[in-house]
Structure formats: C-alpha cells, structure tokens
Amino acid sequence: ILLAACSPAPSGGGDGSGGNDNGAVAGEVTGELLYFSGRPAPQWDLVDTEQTEIARRLEGISAVSSPGDFPRFGPVAYHILNPQGVAGIPDEVIAQDGTLLVRTGETYSYYSDDKDLEGLLRTSAVADGVYAELGIVEVSQKGSK
After folding, report:
1. Is the pTM of this model over 0.90?
2. I need a surface site. Which of 46, 71, 77, 141 has the fewest CB within 10 A?
C-alpha cells in the first residue's frame, strides 16, 4: 500500500509560493453529487468562496490506507472536478463517509476527512438544489422558499 507523505499538491502548476495571487483561488470548479441512482450525476458550480474553503480544508490532511470499497454504491458521495487546474485544489476529489480520494495528475491518494470537506460539499449541494434534481428533499430544504 502506498501512502502519500504530504498533503495534496495544488494542480494549478504553481510553485507553492503564492506568487502575486496571495494564495487566492478562482476559476471553474464543479461539484458533482454521486448518488448511484442510475441517473446522470447532478452538478453545480463551486463559487470562489467555496473554492477558497475547499483549498483550506485540504491543507495538512492525514493520509490513510486505501479503503477496499471506496466509493461505495448506494450512499451519497461528493465529487470535485477541477479541469482548469485552479490553484490549491487537486484535479479531482471524492468525499464519502470521512474518507477523501484525491487525484493530482495520475497520482491517487487517500486521506481522512478530518476537516469535514464532505460537510461543506453537502451544504453547497443542498443550497444549490442538486438533491431536488434526483427527486430527493433534504431536511434542510424543507420549508425553505
């Protein structure tokens, strides 16, 4: 089993120095709800403030062993897609039940979601209405609007 010895590297091609952007992230990053329902996965845009928080929560996360059944079918998983290489965010992240799968380039690593990235993505997905696309009403959506 290979474990990464460091936190996920930014995929934006930066040297980690922050350059002139003061560590800011901006660009097109997409969230995707993996519900394993047989339907296409609903997607939503992650706004700049969410991107900044995602990058913050990915800093210094703890490597874990590769789970045997990740992601599992049935329950919800959250998928971050970063095709433009926004600095501070890996190319791809899947969050499910306290575990993160992080892909940077061709390297896949597993981490503990000890900073609750999954909770951030769930809140963002609910606020964007992606559960409604699957005909699911989340408790936090009930009574709103």
Report:
1. no
2. 141
